[in-house]
Design a protein that fits this description.
single chain; alpha/beta; eight-stranded mixed β-sheet; two-stranded parallel ribbon; 4 helices; 12 strands; 15% helix; globular
Amino acid sequence: MGMVIECLHKMTRLRDLVIERVPKFSIVNTLNASLSLREMELSPSTSWSNNVSFNETVGAMFLQCISLRSLELRGMEDWECLPDQLQHLTSLETLILSDFGIEALPEWFGNLESLKTLFLSNCKKLRHLPSKQAMQRLSKLTDLYISGCPLLMNEERSNDNNNPQIVDSEWLKISHIPSVYVNYRLQ
């Protein structure tokens, strides 16, 4: 049985929430707090054996966080999917995803139409972005940072050995984004 975080409903002015490496937790009665939340960081502990239970827990939180502007979500290398409820966070302006074992970002990613900044970090199995149509729905996205996602980068096609670039088929999907950084270098 995991830890239950019950006190959040009393924190009606809570703006930022960080839950880092807390063994299995569940959140109940969070509605009052979640209405005011603007920033959240979630990082699982190794006690989360699979992402199904983690996704269910954070998914329930996301459905209540209608005002969330910034989210940092860390996973585990063997977790092959993101929480589906993430697609309902349409007020998100900044999203940081790291350490997931996903091979592709889901097509519903295009629903995050308020997104201005996206960080993809250490997703070592990531090969594909959503379709070009889904990516173009992210019309406010001005900054894309990709680091530690080797399968998304073409190590052979580079100006020099220290400057990997996005694989051609994926580059077409993001060519409309003004600032794309790969390993912290502007492309």
